[in-house]
Amino acid sequence: MHTSPNARTIALLLLTLILAGCGDLGGLLGNQPTPAPIILIATATPVPPSQATPTTDIVPSPTVAPPDTPVATSVLPTAAPPTPTPAPQKILARVKERGYLICGTNADLPGFGFYDNVRQAWSGFDVDFCRAVAAAIFGDATKVEFVALGTGPGPNNRFDAVREGRVDVLFRNTTWTLGRNISGLAFGPTTFHDGQTFMVRIRDRITKLEDLAGKVICVAKGTTSEQNLNDDFAARGIQFTARVLNGEDELYPAYDEGECDAVTSDSSQLAAKRQQLKNPADHIILGDRISREPLGPVIARDDNQWLDVISWTVFATIYAEELRVDQRNVDRLRASTTDPRIKRLLGLEGNFGEGLGLPNDFAYQIIKQVGNYGDIYNRNLGPNTVINLDRGPNKVWNLGAGGVLASPPFR
Question: Is the pTM of this model over 0.85?
Answer without folding.
Answer: no
